[in-house]
Amino acid sequence: MSRHIPLDGAPNFRDFGGYPVARTGRRVKYGRLFRAGHLADLSLADLTVVADLGISHLYDFRRSFEQEYKPNHPSVLATVDHVIHLDITPGNHTGSLEVVTRTGSLPAEIHKFMCDINRELALSHQSSFERVFEGLLADPDAIILVHCAAGKDRTGFAAALILLALGVELDVVMQDYLLTQRYFLPHQQIPALRDKYGFDGVQDEVLEPIVATRREYLQAALDAMLEHSGSIDGYLLDAFGVGEVERQLLSERLTETV
Q: In this predicted model, what pLDDT tens digit does every residue of 126-155 receive, in sequence order?
């Protein structure tokens, strides 16, 4: 199956199933776990494709500002049983604006800022990501979509957590994260970022790290998880109550024999 789902109005819409679980010899099921950016600009053809996925739980990590700026298409929301809004702050309007408009901001400073907000995802927003695990554990037939504005940082961390809980190796999780580089292209996204936040006069090279997908960003979150709990397994248990029993249940539901 193709992991990327080509849509006219949502270029970074992907199924993040199909990955191997080395320790069990199984693989993550296709058709159960999806990730995307905002769903405001879907075409009629896109809407048919998305409806056919049968999504039952939609987790929207955007701030209210972002939801109002680019509201998800009502036809998508009408087909989903559970729409859960989880307001996650890092990298949103206020934080980005303060950093980018600071006098003398350099690309290296924005790169560090993006690493910092990914650390913050792991350390300060655990309750939001816990909601995703709650949905997967409560409904054995859940088909979920996790998304934010770009489908990059907040969404990327959520997808990474789920894959790690299923036992997917770290390097494979990173590969899934970096796939966004193919579908969310900085040179195409900078004008939209400028319009969204009023970054008139800010140079492209300063804005580029915000819309880029870089290994260091997710790695910063992974490092924070290890600092917090000593291991990935420990973090999943400490942050979300996802221990051996819960992970086995998730494996039974979301992985399959090859």
A: 999 999 999 999 999 999 999 999 999 999
Tell if the pTM clears 0.85, that is, is over it.
Answer: yes
Which pair of tokens denotes residue 161?
Answer: 């957590």
Give the per-residue pLDDT at 89. Answer: 81
Taking residues 214-240, report their average pLDDT.
Answer: 98
What's the CA angle centered on 120, arms 114 and 124, to 5 degrees?
Answer: 160
Beta-carbon-side half-sphere exposure of residue 105 (alpha carbons within 13 Å): 24
Query: How far, in Å, CA of 208 to CA of 119, rounded?
Result: 19
Judge contact between 218 and 160, C-beta under 8 A. Answer: yes
Q: Alpha helix locations (H) across 20-169?
A: 44-52, 64-69, 74-79, 93-100, 107-124, 126-138, 154-165
Confidence of residue 94 (pLDDT cuts 50, 70, 90): very low
Question: What are 177's two structure tokens?
Answer: 């994260």
> Nearest 5 degrees, angle CA 224-CA 230-CA 235?
70
In the block, which residue shows the tokens 């039952």? 56
DSSP string, 152-208: SSHHHHHHHHHHHHTT--HHHHHHHHHTHHHHS-HHHHHHHHHHHHT-TT--HHHHH
Assess whether pLDDT exceeds 80 at residue 71: yes
Q: Are 254 and 29 in contact (CB under 8 A)?
A: yes
